[in-house]
Design goal:
By secondary structure, this protein is of the alpha/beta class. 45% of the residues lie in helices and 18% in strands. It has two domains: 201 residues, Spore Coat Polysaccharide Biosynthesis Protein SpsA, Chain A; 68 residues. Helix 1 links the parallel strand 1 and strand 2. Helix 9 packs antiparallel against helix 10. It is globular and about 60 Å long.
């Protein structure tokens, strides 16, 4: 396996301030000879000018689309990728210089894995934060961890393009939590190869991020993802039990929050939702 086998997909939307750092962190990757695909999801800032300056010295593909969301942008990048492996990098994150090299070497040494992730450093307003234990990435069968939270850092992932396309990619209907949804659909069938070192730097703490924009109602999208999962064929009885328990937990928390904030009909609807899948399991 060599570094010509990776297409790096960078979705971006009005991130000109950070885009150069992300792209240059790919260009600095040890032995990297793959391709860089920047998918501009309808930016209205000077992102195009940033890319034009970089492309004068570094080869990359720049695709501009109308604004359809980050999931659709990543799906487009994967569809256009020419390499057998794809890596995702959000435009406000960046990599240490040997991230891809170490990950691809690990995949070559462990050919029964088709997807890998790494540890990451969290950067908030210029300060590195310590992760809580629950957020530390895990190796192998990570489905139970993925049920709890988004257990895989988006910008840490390298996976076979074939696996991504077989999975159906990101759900473009989700404005956020599209990564949570995909990791659920992948992790109940596939094991994840962890390179534990913090090879990815995740930028956060800004008002323009999806986790901030949708922060109050994010559990609604995780509930949607869990409900989708429970409708899929292929879950074994233990996986179904765990998924249903997590759905009940999230529906109870979100539903009670709705009731507390003056939306009793919505709250009761969510609290009752898991019964639909409990009944289905009993048949």
């Amino acid at each position: 396996m060599n570094m010509e086998e990776v297409s790096v997909i960078i979705p971006t939307y009005n991130r000109a301030e950070y885009l150069r750092r992300a792209v240059e962190s790919v260009c600095r990757q040890k032995h990297f000879e793959g391709e860089i695909i920047v998918v501009d999801d309808g930016s209205t800032d000077h992102s195009r000018e940033v890319i034009e300056k970089i492309s004068a010295t570094q080869p990359l593909r720049y695709i501009r689309t109308e604004n359809k969301g980050v999931g659709a942008a990543r799906n487009l990048g994967a569809a256009l990728a020419a390499c057998p492996y794809i890596a995702f990098l959000d435009s406000d994150d960046h990599w240490v210089a040997d991230k891809l090299d170490r990950q691809m070497r690990c995949l070559a040494e462990n050919p029964h894995f088709s997807i890998s992730h790494t540890g990451e450093k969290w950067l908030r307003r210029g300060v590195f934060l310590n992760q809580k234990r629950i957020h530390r990435p895990r190796h192998g069968y990570i489905f139970p961890h993925c049920l709890q939270l988004c257990a895989v850092g988006m910008s840490t992932v390298v996976m076979s393009r074939e696996l991504f396309l077989e999975s159906g990619g990101f759900d473009p209907e989700l404005p956020c939590c599209e990564d949570y949804d995909l990791w659920l659909r992948l992790s109940f069938r596939h094991h994840f190869l962890l390179v534990p070192e913090a090879l990815t730097v995740k930028e956060g703490g800004r008002d323009d991020q999806l986790s901030k924009i949708y922060g109050v109602g994010m559990d609604r999208y995780r509930i949607y993802a869990l409900a989708k999962l429970l409708q899929k064929k292929g879950l074994n009885s233990e996986q179904r039990r765990l998924a249903l328990a997590e759905l009940e937990k999230k529906c109870r928390i979100y539903g009670n929050g709705c009731i507390k904030h003056g939306r009793p009909l919505e709250g009761r609807r969510y609290i009752a939702l898991p019964k639909k899948y409990t009944t289905a399991s009993a048949k």
